[in-house]
């Protein structure tokens, strides 16, 4: 039976793995990311059999994906695919973990990261400009800023 399992295409195995282990267990948005990873795998390695899976092949998959994606997106893709591969390894369908010491590559972010907080001086100016003569929005902002 294990021999038969090894003749399965990895992209088919991944899709089945998502259906068995992820559907109904994770949020819809996360499930959509797994489905996207399945589509990407079908594009990148449509003829890769489980029996041919090794570290070099996995690194090639990551490298191809990284050609058109930012590094953080490549990390996310890697984590989704790695979860399935760990199960392959644990179930004895592959002899070695091909994700071991993978090098995550990818483009640098194309847009500048937005600051998600105020600088100390900006907060002081905001607090000084608040109307706190009546209980309302000004009081709410002050409460949030002080806690």
From TrEMBL:
Superkingdom of the organism of origin: Bacteria
Sample GO molecular function, one term: DNA binding
Entry keyword Disulfide bond: no
Keywords: DNA-binding
Protein name, per record: Site-specific integrase
Native organism: Listeria monocytogenes
